[in-house]
């Protein structure tokens, strides 16, 4: 997968960031934050030069936590376009998870037939559960939603109601109680859930600034003939075998 560069044209620090962790510190919780993803640094820098809004800090020095980050004196607002709705389907799959240490999971993200953004990939690390894969698929879909420069409003569709509950209801409660579940134990899959929540917050700010409301997470019944869900399921199953 091509390396991502995140171009922040309005945030605590404007510039180009090589990873989401550095980028998020400049845009999370910042009003009217603007960020777009690119596959090469040159295009990302050109975007910042053209669209940067002066930061509210007293210094134009690069952020220490960023890479190739710089501020710009120019300001430009994007032209408003009619809102288009789009749905991206996500799914997770796990094979042999009934056998200890033999489980292999994968995730799938489906934007459309032949879409280069479609993803079929294996889960990395020890957590090879289906639920972890479901959440990872949503997180990867959110990467593309965050970096999408169009005027589309996305809905993420999944057949995992548990994942939707984690995002809709669990996030605020867990963040307020130190990420403990109802039994007082650490919440499983905290890292990926937190990543989704961070990206959701930024997307909603961008959508609200442009009158698009909030990003939506929709439950769809699995294996019910919904083309997007069936394709995401195939991608996830293929990912689990890689």
From TrEMBL:
Ranges where the RNase H type-1 domain occurs: 82-241
Q: Can you tell which superkingdom this protein's organism belongs to?
A: Eukaryota
Which EC number(s) does the record attach to this protein? Answer: 3.1.26.4
According to the UniProt entry, which residue ranges have a biased composition of type Polar residues? 51-79
UniProt keyword terms in alphabetical order:
Endonuclease, Hydrolase, Magnesium, Metal-binding, Nuclease
Q: Which GO terms describe its molecular function?
A: magnesium ion binding; nucleic acid binding; RNA-DNA hybrid ribonuclease activity
Please cite one Gene Ontology biological process associated with this protein: DNA replication, removal of RNA primer
Question: What cofactors does this protein use?
Answer: Mg(2+)
| Catalysed reaction, written as an equation | Endonucleolytic cleavage to 5'-phosphomonoester
Pfam family, any one = Cauli_VI
Disordered, as annotated region: 51-92
User: What exactly does this protein do?
Assistant: Endonuclease that specifically degrades the RNA of RNA-DNA hybrids.
Family to which this protein belongs: Belongs to the RNase H family.
Which protein, by its recorded name, is this? Ribonuclease H
This protein's species is Ambrosiozyma monospora
